[in-house]
Amino acid sequence: MDTKAISANLSVAPQITAHDVDTARDHGFRAIICNRPDGEGMDQPNFEEIEARAHALGLEARYLPITQGKVTDADAKAFGDLLTELPGPVLAYCRSGTRSATLWSLSEAERLSVADILAATKSAGYDMAGVVRRIVNGGKTPTDRADAEYDVVIVGAGAAGISVASSLKSRKPGQTIAIIDPADIHYYQPGWTMVGGGIFGAPKTAKTLGSLIPQGVHWIKSAVAAFEPEKDVVVLDGCRVVKYKRLVVCPGLKLDWHKIDGLVETLGQNGVTSNYRYDLAPYTWELVSGLKSGRALFTQPPMPIKCAGAPQKALYLSGDHWHRTGVLDRIDIQFMNAGGVLFGVKDYVPALQGYMNRYKADLNYFHNLTAIDGAAKKAWFEVKEPDQEVRTVEAEFDMIHVVPPQAAPDFIRVSPLADAAGWVDVDQATLRHKTYENIWSLGDVMNAPNAKTAAAARVQAPIVAENLADDIEGKSPTALYDGYGSCPLTVERGKIVLAEFGYGGALLPSFPKWVIDGTKPTRAAWLLKEQILPPFYWKAMLRGKEWMVKPEKVSSS
Known about the structure:
This protein is α/β, with parallel strands linked by helices.
């Protein structure tokens, strides 16, 4: 645990674990403040885990979650009140400690001089220079001048953001480009299904973000607080201001673990797991490989979700393992799907239904997980069948794979860029914003009706780069997106149904049928997923190699 003393009463730290609470007590801390919202990262423990351990050790614990980039005056006052109320010394933490240091800086602004605040935070390793104007000006954010200015600013350094940066850099090497993202690690999330199936090790799916930022692209390691599109401005955490000529928005999705009552308290234990979190995917395999009899539940929340086939993938690989090890007849597999169909594109349903039959899985449609009690091994589902009264059903389990509800990040949902549902509002063909002509969006956060998959981002990135290049040259966008998305459904170890489709469910296969018939399970598709796509992702897609996805120019005449 890396703690940094800021004052006699307060130290701050990056994300801690339940084990670190013991260390904190041993170091004399008497209270803990959590400033990081649960579910913000793929590998963080939830506050309830920290709180439970703190109370067991006689420490106070408080939850003051601060969304990245949204430290308000009220937050700072609440933080100051907690420091007065709680027994000291106090340990506060967030993802890196910066939010906690910022809260302290703002809460002390009326008592200490700016110089004293900056000296204290600098000695702890936190640079608060970007908050000076806010301390002096009562939290007001001037936008008449920028702290930095670039030709193109990209929000989000996931698969979409890095890919579009690389593709644009190759087209317009003279443009100044910046990527904004506070993360330290970049994850190959499509690999987590394979981790949960015992095929990959988790470390194979992670690399440091710094190693992936394209050469010549500036990395602003910060969180976005707000957008001011009328002024071509992005406001960062700490009230720094970045001005742009063109903006690309692709920060990914928010996983809303808290929307299911009781889930956060039991994740990673009591047989409750999810391949949607880096640190939990190995637990999925631990549960699957250890289960010899009992009931296994696999859930799917309402759409939209990242990779809609992922809930089924976990089921298929689990069922295949139990089939191969001879215990399938002793395991009751239940697929609890909030939707009303097995898969949204009907051409792939026969093959998938065949595997559901093979694994003797019961399909429970219109079942949405709403609550869970891990210790009691019980889950509750709201059932909304057509023309029927809504009812709640209870199901017992020995293991349960949970897919969390998903939404656009808060700073997107409340921004001028969002539609009524909270997604970035784009033209589905050009991916240009419908209102602001110098803004584009791609990846999971925009509102085009396509599958939210890494394969979709792979196709979208060169299209957005091409259209940006057109705009820079004063031309109308000429590259059009057909809604392509791909979902390699791992129906058994060694075979995949390679679903590839576009808008309206139109089949868009990348290979001739004699190579890969996507409607049938094939060994070739498995080799593609297991051996070809991971290195392709790291070494080609993220580096702007547009193999098989280079956009065709569409005539405007």
